[in-house]
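Sample entry (340 residues):
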Amino acid sequence: MKKIRLFWGVLTAGYLTLIIFGLWYGPYRVDVSMILKALFTPDSSEHMQLIKTIVLKIRLSRLMLATLVGIALSTSGVVFQGLLRNPLADPFTLGVSTGAAFGASLAMILGINIGWSLGGLGLLPVISMAGALLALFFVIHLSKVEGILRPAQMILAGIVVSTFLSALISLLKSLDEESLSAIVFWMLGSFSGRGWIHVFFAFPYIFLGLFIFLQYAKELDIMSLGDLEAHHLGVNIHQVRMILLICGCITTSAAVSVSGIIGFIGLVVPHLLRLIQGPSHKELLISSAILGAALMVGSDLIAQNILPAGEEVPVGVITTLIGGPFFCYILKIKRQEIAS
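Predicted structure, serialized as tokens:
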């Protein structure tokens, strides 16, 4: 446990370093002393108001949103992998992210996000979450055998639902070329143009989801032994599985609805940490939350600053470019372990 706490300390230090760097670095450099003044002093001079706008309204809100999305995707990945006992499971595998993308695409096509509002926040996030829940409903329905939810069937059902919804998204894009660029950019994942209102929208869902995940960490450990063993040990496997699936869906869809589709965080982070610290879900959830937040913040900083002319790359492209080769390396290590 001491080693794990030390590991958490290292991850947290790395995350905080990225936050400080993100507040400092950009087209307009802000000294650390000015950052501290903007955060902690009531100075209302014109220059300080400019600094506060840059630090608090633009940079800090984006860093906090990236943090929340990283936490949501990585911890949901832990839960989905634990429930299905499959290290390749993640929100994308179950069709949740594609369902959220379909809901968002439909909102863009119909102009709902422009015509209606919810406290200043467009209804796109709400409709995106509804699409994710609808996708999960179909996955659960297709995965039941004689009224019992079968984890082995969920992967196949998730792929079927995800493929079907992807086809519908392609159809929507072909029907309305004016919304094509907006849909494509949203599906690549980005925090551009987001602010505190998006943070406040996503925070309750992600915080509540993480709290529930931690409450059921022990049950996840027991369920990893198999359904029969978990049943003998007193776990109501069907109830626990349904609660965690719904919470994982809501947590993921809250993240995806404000950021777009961002891949590999929910797949690589839990898989890597299992190799480092073992399968205990409580420690795994905490480590995944910290590492997921740090990885997402770091990826977004790269996305903002990688091009010399100042253009922004979608953060989903960065996470895929980092996560894809890294996951191939992990699979290579696992294959060598099996061969030996």
